[in-house]
Design a protein that fits this description.
The chain is of the alpha+beta class and 149 residues long. The chain has 3 helices and 5 strands; from the N terminus they run βααββαββ. Strand 4 and strand 5 form a beta hairpin.
């Protein structure tokens, strides 16, 4: 499997029509499940018709869970996650207090042992990267909405 390049890149600039982000503090494993359920409710509650872009919503939820769980497992507390609806998609931003530990896709690992989340993100998301701002690492991904659906 070719490894995606997780290069250091700044978060995309905020878009003019950007809505306030949905945000969560992740302190324990149960927070991952709670925040994913909350994200789903927020997206559906924002008037997004689930029948039209159901696959995009599932992609968002999967990408969110992968990035948030990586932050929780491999980052340093406090871990925070935010999702912003803007333009034709959603920006996921997971931050932690380990700016000196870049995200590293697993290489030459049996998929049965996990560690393929960053590879998955690179295939699901239109854009992704990481950066350091104010002593916090940001690992981010942008999930596009398929406007042709």
């Amino acid at each position: 499997m070719d490894a995606p390049l997780w290069s250091e890149r700044a978060l995309p600039e905020p878009l003019r029509d950007q809505l306030p982000p949905w945000a969560w503090d992740l302190h324990q494993a149960a927070d991952l499940t709670r925040s994913r359920l909350d994200l789903r409710a927020n997206v559906l509650g924002a008037g997004v018709p689930p029948g039209d872009i159901a696959e995009d919503i599932e992609c968002l939820l999967l990408a969110y869970e992968e990035l948030a769980s990586n932050g929780f497992r491999h980052g340093q507390p406090p871990v925070q996650a935010a999702v912003t609806a803007a333009g034709n998609g959603w920006l996921i931003d997971v931050t932690d207090a380990a700016p000196d530990h870049a995200p590293a896709p697993a290489m030459d690992r049996d998929p049965a042992f996990g560690g393929l989340g960053l590879h998955l993100i690179s295939r699901l998301c239109g854009d992704y990267g990481w950066s350091v701002t104010a002593d916090r690492k940001h690992v981010w991904a942008y999930v596009n909405v398929d406007t042709a659906a």
